[in-house]
Design a protein that fits this description.
The radius of gyration is 20 Å and the shape is globular. Helix content is 38%, strand content 20%. The strands form 3 sheets. The chain has a 6-stranded mixed beta sheet with strand order 6-7-8-9-11-10, sandwiched between helices. A hairpin with a 2-residue loop joins β8 and β9. The protein has 3 domains: 82 residues, no CATH class; 65 residues; 127 residues, Diaminopimelate Epimerase, Chain A, domain 1. The chain is built from 10 helices and 11 strands. Bound molecules: manganese (II) ion. The site of manganese (II) ion has 5 residues, from loops.
Length: 288
């Protein structure tokens, strides 16, 4: 069966080692497909312009593991189960028997793709979602040919020096609030331009500050195009999925995001005020 990966224009360099002979094309309005397979999101806003493909398709399959907020993608068949660490883990549990019967090279390739979804969604087995089940799934993928060391290098140690320099500039914006419990970083288009990178293509910088001692929440504000910002929230204390939903976003309870339009300092102040208020409420509840 012919298949095509339709991107929203993102650079897939980070996934180059997993693309093999996959066909990849950025979305354009003339595109139409009989069958759509939508993975790892359930919110129609996340599809961007690609949402127009929904009306032209006769069958839509949706597989996801995120909380359902607003704007659920209409689909003939959908499986959304938050107990799975990644969509790759869902696919693996469904297809493991079939994988075992494939030729070794194909099996290794598919196991590597699925393993990478776990690498990403557990942040290399360090997030709170890293359970015995997840380690067991990863071990079974390794047994089918996924190479943990190689995949870690290809996915997490595959950054250009420009990305590292950009990351350094973003880390240089670090400010803390609430006695060092809430940390905020931001990046501007200028920083991206200075370092010749596209912000959306860089590994989320929040991963570099989650280990800051005493931190209970991280906010990252990233300018993606003039006056258009992507916000990322990370916290084990605040349900950031609910927080992001206030701004039309979503995600997981400890990792979420949303988009906002405006001016950096205004957005920063509005989000900080709002977030700190929520943080204090939770802090007060927990102190009782
Ligand atoms: Mn995911």
């Amino acid at each position: 069966m012919d298949s095509l990966i339709v991107t929203d224009g993102d650079d897939l360099a980070l996934f180059e080692h997993l693309l093999a002979d996959a066909q990849v094309q950025p979305y354009h309005p003339e595109m139409s497909f009989a069958t759509l397979l939508i993975l790892d999101c359930n919110n129609i806003a996340r599809l961007g312009e690609r949402k127009d493909l929904l009306d032209k398709a006769s069958q839509v399959y949706l597989i996801d593991h995120h909380e359902v907020e607003v704007g659920l993608i209409p689909a003939q068949y959908s499986f959304i189960e938050q107990s799975f660490v990644s969509v790759g883990a869902i696919l693996f549990e469904a297809l493991e028997d079939q994988l075992q019967g494939l030729p070794p090279d194909v099996r290794t390739y598919l196991a590597s793709c699925l393993y990478t979804t776990i690498l990403n969604d557990t942040n290399t087995f360090t997030n709170g979602n890293t359970t015995a089940t997840v380690l067991d799934q990863a071990a079974r993928m390794a047994a089918l040919g996924a190479n943990p060391s190689l995949l870690h290098r290809q996915y997490f140690q595959n950054q250009s020096w420009q990305e590292i320099r950009y990351t350094g500039e973003v880390l240089g914006t670090t400010q803390v609030y609430e006695n060092g419990k809430v940390l905020l970083i931001y990046s501007t288009l200028q920083m991206a331009e200075d370092n010749d990178i596209i912000p959306a293509d860089v590994l989320n910088v929040t991963r570099w500050v989650q280990g800051v001692r005493g931190i209970e929440a991280v906010i990252f504000i990233r300018e993606e195009s003039p006056g258009y910002f992507k916000l990322s929230f990370r916290s084990k204390k605040v349900d950031v999925s609910r927080f992001a939903a206030r701004y039309g976003g979503g995600g997981h309870s400890n990792a979420s995001g949303c988009h906002l339009q405006g001016e950096l300092n205004q957005i920063k102040q509005m989000i900080l005020d709002d977030f700190i208020q929520v943080y204090r409420e939770i802090d007060a509840q927990q102190a009782q």
